[in-house]
Known about the structure:
Structural class: mainly alpha
Distance between the termini: 21 Å
Largest sheet: none
Low-confidence stretches: none
Number of domains: 1
Radius of gyration: 28 Å
Number of strands: 0
Strand content: under 5%
Number of helices: 3
Order of helices and strands: HHH
Helix content: over 70%
Mean pLDDT: 86
Amino acid sequence: MSSMWGPGEVFTFGALLQTLRLLGTELRAAFIQTSVRLREQTYSSLIGVHVSAGSTLTHLRLQCYIHALPRYSSDDSSVNVGAIAILAHSVQNQTNLLAYIDGFVVLDFAVIGALLPMLLLRNPQPRPKPRL
């Protein structure tokens, strides 16, 4: 009975396995990066809806930032711009955090999905002892 892979094709088989391993890694990384980016955009839109220019809570938050900023000049517009930049930065940090949390949830489900088939594995049949 001849085998499917001959001794001359061992290196080809090894190269194929290595290529598939590397390709799988790159595909997983691209999927996670894309899903995190899309979730970040979604959260940015959702948080942006709640942070509007006329909102009382937004105005109070900006006033707190204005009072917390040191005044190096008598120009109030630079302090207002600084407060808005701090608010924008905090919104960006929040969207990043929520997107990465979702990325880890996706990874959790992927690991669980990969581990579940292991429960279906059975012990292999014992090999017959060779006769001498």
